[in-house]
Amino acid sequence: MALKLVLASGNPGKLAELSDILADLDAEVLPQSEFDVPDAVEDGLSFVENALIKARHAARHSGLPALADDSGLCVDALGGAPGIYSARYAGTHGDDEANNRKLLANLTGVDNRRAHFHCALVFVRHENDPAPIICEGLWWGEIVDQARGDNGFGYDPLFYIPSLGCCSAELPKAQKNAVSHRGQALAKLLTRLQQR
């Protein structure tokens, strides 16, 4: 029997990406919007803490196992910012263009452009699961001065991967899903779920 789980996210880009990657899992993945799950209060200090808050919140409201992702961009020269505030870096949650403009403004004249995407995935069997599965992925690159590419979302047009010679937003979806921070974390999660 297929696993039925709720995906604790309202971000359409993230939902599409996670659903694509989870297609190989024998599971029915339902968005939390199907259960009228209100937004969780993400008051953790790390990606892992916020993902755990969101997973437990979605499990509580849906009565199903839940999977949550908390991810963002960490820029070395900015002390790890925007970090856990990546989606609302410029003040409004999910305004990708404003976030990208603020990032570029904050890096004006800065030579060190090294950055990484960080993804924390948390799976809970139920709200009070004492042993959640936690998997993380990191994707290293650097920030370019101008947006490139039309794929992806968030900071993808500014995130350059030297080993691939392009920005994340220039990658085909399948390739990005295979190498990204989220793809790495999900590969670990699939292995752990299959072991259970």
From TrEMBL:
Q: Which residues form the active site?
A: D70
Reaction(s) catalysed by this chain, per the record, are: XTP + H2O = XMP + diphosphate + H(+); dITP + H2O = dIMP + diphosphate + H(+); ITP + H2O = IMP + diphosphate + H(+)
Q: Where does Mg(2+) bind?
A: D70
Q: Which residues are noted in the entry as substrate-binding?
A: S9, G10, N11, P12, G13, K14, S71, F153, G154, Y155, D156, K176, H181, R182
Task: List, alphabetically, the InterPro entries matched.
Answer: dITP/XTP_pyrophosphatase, ITPase-like_fam, RdgB/HAM1
Could you state one GO biological process linked to this protein?
purine nucleoside triphosphate catabolic process
Cofactor, free-text remark: Binds 1 Mg(2+) ion per subunit.
EC id: 3.6.1.66
The family assignment reads:
Belongs to the HAM1 NTPase family.
Subunit info?
A: Homodimer.
Q: What is the protein name for this chain?
A: dITP/XTP pyrophosphatase
State the organism named in the record.
Spongiibacter nanhainus
Q: Which gene encodes it?
A: rdgB
